[in-house]
Amino acid sequence: MKQLQVKTSSSEYPIYIGEDCLSVLAPFLQQATQTIVVTDQTVYDLHYQKLSHVLPENTITYIITPGESSKSFDCYHQIQTFLIESQVDRQACLLAFGGGVVGDLAGFVAATYMRGIDFIQIPTTLLAHDSAIGGKVAINHELGKNLIGAFYPPKAVVYDLRFLRTLSEKEWRCGLAEMVKHGFIANPSLLRQLLQIQSLDALLDETFAQLLIQSLMVKMEIVQMDEFEQGCRAYLNFGHTFGHAIELDEKELSHGEAVAIGILFSLYLSEHIFGIDLAIGQYLTYLKRLHFPLPFNVDHAKRYLGYMMHDKKNQRKQVRFVLLNQLAKPELVSFSIAGLETLLKQFLSEFTTKEERVCH
Ligand SMILES: NC(=O)c1ccc[n+]([C@@H]2O[C@H](COP(=O)([O-])OP(=O)(O)OC[C@H]3O[C@@H](n4cnc5c(N)ncnc54)[C@H](O)[C@@H]3O)[C@@H](O)[C@H]2O)c1
Ligand SMILES: O=C(O)C(=O)C[C@@H](O)[C@H](O)[C@H](O)COP(=O)(O)O
Ligand SMILES: [Zn+2]
To answer: What pLDDT band is residue 354 in, cutting at 50, 70 and 90?
Structure first.
């Protein structure tokens, strides 16, 4: 098991990562008056038993429906009601046991229940190596992703890699997208190795675990520098401006898949604005090799723009993108709506025509 320590301006917490590391939870739970587990049905069925060995007797558990639709006001309200009816007090500890959806939702519940109770992230997806660190917790609004939320750091992150063995190929793709993002913005060697992956079969070996730790460290180091996104933390949003828009527009796309497409557009804009070569073709080949869905459509350009107009990075009604002026050199670039519309349509028609078989 590896232990890292996140040190930000407001808090400090450990990350435990490795096989079979759940016993590290015991001292945290002994201090709490009660333990609440929030998880989803799939994670409950597959992995709750492993967790149950370390849970105190008076643990209560709330199970949500898997998927993005649970990051809603309704679900948030139902969990709060469950906590109130169960007379959970302020010294309780909430365990967010699942992927990014459980982490974001349960984290936001913890941040706001009686003005805040302790919570611990127990990520179970590859993508959640990103979402479990850094304290961004949120639910969605129909007008945009994560629009209602908080910065609320966990007391610990406990990442037991045994959970990853049951992930579907789709979930591997989602996690890889955020890893590739970390590679593009900060670690070209990580990026190079990720782009060489030939297949999603049996990915979780020792070499991959090392890449996962490198990716996690990119996230951790940026969060340590700028916990509340006053500056460089925005770089972690590379690929997310268009990514969040297409995620909202195309319900079949999960977050990571949408981010993978968002990265494609960010590379396109970067090449256009800075006149550089970021080997976009190589990235597209990688996406196709691993069967990432690429369902963008030039007819939806206005809808994508509508969503991007609510992006949290926007300033003075301009849409701000994280672009690369070279590999691992991100910067924020503002676009007027009209300017962005032209480039977006150009991108959509160029890539839809070229990749007719995969983009519909
Ligand atoms: N807070 C942050 O910094 C941050 C960062 C990245 C993403 N996010 C958010 O995270 C969410 C996406 O997270 P996600 O991709 O983990 O999605 P998810 O939580 O919906 O999990 C994906 C699917 O995998 C299933 N699953 C979870 N663990 C499993 C396991 N071990 N084996 C088999 N199936 C398992 C889930 O039931 C679900 O159906 C999005 O809402 C995104 O906005 C937040
Ligand atoms: O931690 C961050 O900061 C990120 O941007 C990480 C992203 O991968 C993640 O999807 C995050 O939830 C996006 O944040 P948002 O502020 O754009 O909602
Ligand atoms: Zn993301």
So the answer is: low
ipTM for the assembly: 0.99
Residue 247 CB–ligand 1 contact under 6 Å: no
Q: What's CA 329's distance to the chain center, in Å?
A: 21
Bridge partners of 5, per DSSP, are 14
* 352 marked as part of a ligand binding site: no
In angstroms, rounded to a whole number, what is the distance separating the alpha carbons of residues 199 and 201? 6
Say how far apart CA 326 and CA 275 lie, in whole Å: 10
Pocket of ligand 2 (CB under 6 A): 130, 134, 136, 145-146, 178, 229, 233, 236-237, 240, 312
Tokens 């610990």 correspond to what residue? 156
Q: Which residue, by CA, sits nearest to atom 20 of ligand 1?
A: 67
Q: What is the pTM of this model?
A: 0.97
CA of 163 to the centre of ligand 1 (A): 12
Please name the residue whose Cα sits nearest to atom 12 of ligand 1: 100
Distance 158 CA to ligand 2 centre (A): 20
Would you say 269 and 323 are in contact if contact means Cβ atoms under 8 Å apart?
A: yes
Which ligand has an atom closest to residue 154 CA? 1
Report the Cα–Cα distance between both ends of the chain, in Å, rounded: 44
253 lines ligand 1 (CB under 6 A): no
* Domains of the chain, earliest start first: 2-165 (3.40.50.1970), 169-354 (1.20.1090.10)
Measured CA to CA, the distance from residue 278 to residue 323 in angstroms comes to: 11
What pLDDT digit, counting tens, does each position of 247-286 carry? 999 999 999 999 999 999 999 999 999 999 999 999 999 9
3-state secondary structure string across 156-185: EEEEEHHHHHHCCHHHHHHHHHHHHHHHHH
Cα of 258 from ligand 3 centre, angstroms: 9
36: three-class secondary structure by DSSP: strand
145 has binding-site annotation: yes
